[in-house]
Amino acid sequence: MTLPAIGDVRPWADPEVVSINRLPMRAPFVSSARIRISLDGQWAVQRWSHPDLVTADSVGGADDASWRRIPVPGNWTLFDLGDTPHYTNVTMPWEGLPPSLPAEVPTVVYRRSFRAPAQVGSDAVILHVGGAESVHAVYVNGTFIGYGTDSRLASEYDITAAVRRGENQIAIVVCRYSAQSHVEDQDQWWMAGLHREVWVETRPAVHIANVRVDAGLDGDSTGTLSVITTVACNSGAAVGVGWSVRVAVVDPSGKVRKTLESAVASDVRPYIFRGHTATVECVLPRVKPWSAETPTLYGVVVSLVDASGAVREVIEQRAGFRRVEIVDGDFLVNGRRVMFQGVNRHDHHPERGKAVTVDDMRADLVLMKQHNVNAVRCSHYPNDPRFLDLCDEIGLYVVDEANVESHAWNTSLCHDPRYRPTIISRVARMVDRDRNHACVVMWSLGNESGYGNVHDAAAEWIRSVDQGRPVHYEPAIFHTNWFDGGVGATDVVCPMYAPIDAIVLYGKSKNRVRPLIMCEYSHAMGNSNGSLADYWHAFDTTPGLQGGFVWEWKDHGISQELADGRKRFA
Fold first, then answer.
1. Within a domain: residue 329?
2. CATH, residue 152
3. What is the number of other CB atoms lying within 10 angstroms of the CB of residue 293?
4. Is the pLDDT of residue 415 over 60?
5. How far apart are CA 45 and CA 260, in angstroms?
6. Nearest CA to 108 among 74, 159, 155, 61?
7. Mean pLDDT (whole number) for 455-468
8. Nearest residue to 101 via CA among 45, 175, 190, 154
9. Which residues are catalytic?
10. What is the CATH classification number for the domain harbouring 212?
11. Is 366 found in the same domain as 257?
C-alpha cells in the first residue's frame, strides 16, 4: 500500500482529512516572473480496482510503455478503462451510511514526465491540479507530495524538494469514490479523472501569494477600490524592509487612471502579525459601472517592488465597479432592482463529459445572452475560473455555489461533525478563489444538503470577509419558513419548484423582508418547461419576486456509438 495512511484510516475513506500539504487557495493569476509549463495532453494511465492495491513502482519507476494513453483534461470513464459514467439524482451509486465506500473503488494512476523549469536561485516549483474527481494524491519521482479533495476546485502543491534537474516523473493517483463523494451527490453523471488543467510553474523567492480586489460603487459613477496584496517567501528567503506593492488602475481604453504604492509589512511580531501584506485604497470619480447589461472592466496591475526599486513581479486582475445590496426587501445592483432571467448550468459536453473547454464555455454564454438570459447559477459547484472571466467580460450575474450536495442524506449529514471540516473548507476556498470577480453577486453554500449549524457557521464566515454579496442557501428556508427561517444561512428566499400561488402570497406579504429569487423552477429536462409564462406573469406583477433560475440550461446526453455504428445520446 503506497497511498498515505493517517493512523489506521486511509484519507480517501476519512471525511475529516480535507488535504495534506496543499497550499492555501488564492485568486488565479498569471505572473510575469514565473515560468509555466502545461502538462495537458496525453498521460499514461493504469487502472486498479482499489487504492489499497496501488504499488510503489506504479507511482514511480515502473515502465509505463504498455499503459493506455488518455487525454488530460478528460474523464477516464469515457475511455473504456473498465468504468462507465453513472447517472443518479438522489441515491448514491452504492449502499451504506456515510462515510462508507463500495467494495470496489476504481483508482487510476496518471503518469507523465516533464522537464523541470530552469530554477534561478531560490525559486520554487509548484504543481497545479485544476480538478480531480473524486480525490487525488500526488507523487513526484516516487516521493509522496500531497493529497487533495473537492473535485471542482484546484489544488496546488510545492514540489520543489522532489524535483531534480532534467526529466522528472509525476504521478497523480485518482480515486473514483471517496468519503467525500457523499457531499458530491449532485443530479448529474458520476465521472472520474483529471478533468481540468494541470501545470507546473516556478515561483520566485519573494513573490505575490494572493491579491484581493474589492471594487465598489458610490452613487452612480464614483468607484471605490481596495487592493490587499499578500507577499510570501519560499523557504530560506525573507521579506525585508523596503519592499512595496505598486498598483496601477487602467481604464477600458488602456489609460492609467491612478497609481498607488504601499509598503509591505515586514515586522513579524506575535499576536498582531497578519502576514506580509500591503493595502492600497482609492476613490475614482467618473467610472463606468459594471452590470450584466454594461460589463465594463478596469485593469488592476499589481507590481512587487524590492528595496532597490526594481520590479520583481507583475500580475493583473480585472475589476468591475458595482454595488450589490438588499434594500427594503429588494435585491439591487448599482441601486437598481434586478430581475434574474437565469438558468442553472452544469459543466457538460456530450463527448468530453466534465472536461469542457474555454470555447465550450463561451458558446454556452453567448447562446444565453442571445436568448435574454442574464444570470447563471453554477450548479452545483464552482466552475473553472475561466468561466467567471467570461461572465465578467460578456456580462452575466453569477451565483457561485460551493461543491456541497449530500442529497442522499439530505437531513442528516449536515449534523455529522466528521463532515464539518469539508463543508467549511469547500465554502471558504470558493470565496478565496473567486471574490475578485464582478460577475459573482451571490455566494451559495451548496445544494440539497439539509440545514444545520455548519451552514450558519459557513455563512457567518463569508459575511466576515465579504460584506458586498448576499449569501444564498435554499435548504435553510426549505427546512424552516420563508419569513424569518434560516436567516443565519441565507439572505434571500430561494425556493425550488414552489407553486406560483405560494410565491405570490409571500411577495405580497407585509412581513416580507427578503427578496424571493427561485433557485430552480420550470424544470426543463425532457419535454417540459411548463408554466414558464405563468411564473413570469407573477414575477412581473408581484413586489418582492425577482425571477429565478430555470432547471436547467441544456441536455446531459452522452454520445454513444452502438455495435452497428449508429450513434445515440445516452
1. no
2. 2.60.120.260
3. 10
4. yes
5. 50
6. 74
7. 98
8. 175
9. 448, 520
10. 2.60.40.10
11. no
Helix axes 420-434, 385-394, angle to 10 degrees: 40
Q: Does pLDDT of 7 surpass 60?
A: no
Give the Cα separation of 125 and 112 in Å (integer). 17
Phi/psi at 415 (5° precision)? -100, 0
Give 1's pLDDT tier (boundaries 50, 70, 90).
very low
Residue 427 burial (CB count, 10 A): 27
Residue 226 to residue 420: CA distance in whole angstroms: 32
Query: CB neighbours (10 Å) of residue 365?
Result: 20
Q: Is residue 268 in some structural domain? A: yes
Q: What is residue 392's predicted lDDT score, i.e. its pLDDT?
A: 99
**Alpha carbon distances (Å) from 169 to 1, 65, 111:** 20, 14, 7
Query: What is the model's pLDDT at position 312?
Result: 96
% of the chain at pLDDT higher than 70: 96
Domain match, 517 and 454 both? yes
| Residue 420 host element (H or E) | helix 420-434
**Position 415 in a domain:** yes
pTM: 0.96
DSSP 3-state of 39: coil
Cβ–Cβ < 8 Å for 413, 450 = yes
**Residue 217 contacts residue 289 (beta carbons within 8 Å):** yes
Amino acid at 73: P
Instruction: Please tell me the total count of domains within the chain.
Output: 3
326, part of any domain: no
Domain membership of residue 264 as a residue range: 206-319
For residues 284 and 355, membership in a common domain is answered with: no
